[in-house]
Amino acid sequence: MNRLRRLPIDVWFEPLIILVIGIGYVLWYRSTTFTPTEQASLAWGNLQTTILEHVKLTVVATLIVVVVAIPLGIVLTRPALRRLEPIAVNVANIGQAAPAVGLLVLFTFWLGTGFRTAIVGLVVYAILPILQNTIVGLRQVDHRTIEASRGIGYSGARTLFQVELPLAVPVILNGVRTALVILVGTATLSTFIGATSLGTLITTGVTLFLPKLLISGAILVGLLALVIDWLGRLVELAATPRGIS
């Protein structure tokens, strides 16, 4: 009980919200009469494939963004390349400022339709939060701490990996969580360029005027976003060094 009280409120409260929404959806699903099209779309076999494809889009895009944005953020905080930071951030901001649908459609002219094009569009759209948080996290590390580590003989690389990055972890992982939630929502738009996602349920519901299918798609996307956000919070909590809030 004492351990539970020491946990941040969102760590245990968010699963309660997920549980309540999930149970409410299941009860609604069991008590509702669906059309043949809705039944086919929401059958477990089809729904499982749709959810897995949506998760695949989100996870692959996130992994690529992390591999690109975190090293780039680290490089841009080094004295030799610090002057390039505004340029890199402004370029990354173009992806965030542009409408997601517009980005995806533009990339179809270059790469065609399908999974690969959706991934490229999602990566461009979600790179800013991780890049910016990496830069901010490393910049907020106290210079006296860095100087102390260099003073006891740590090299620049050792200082980076054993001092700066551990202290910047909470901010960096918060950026990763933000990107994940953005990607879960934005991945629904990939249905417009031929990539399977939960957006298929939403667009089918709108096109054929099937409100129950539309509601199901929206609820499932929201639940997936909440679950991924909560899992990201657990990783953030576990990776944060003790003594750092």
TrEMBL record:
Keyword Manganese: no
Alphabetical keyword list: Membrane, Transmembrane, Transmembrane helix, Transport
Transmembrane segments: 12-29, 57-76, 88-112, 118-138, 180-202, 214-232
Superkingdom as given in the UniProt entry: Bacteria
The species this protein was found in: Nocardia suismassiliense
Family of the protein in this entry: Belongs to the binding-protein-dependent transport system permease family.
Cellular compartments annotated: Cell membrane; Membrane
Membrane topology designation: Multi-pass membrane protein
Pfam families referenced in this protein's UniProt entry, alphabetically: BPD_transp_1 (PF00528)
Protein name: ABC transporter permease
Domain ABC transmembrane type-1, chain residue ranges per copy: 51-232
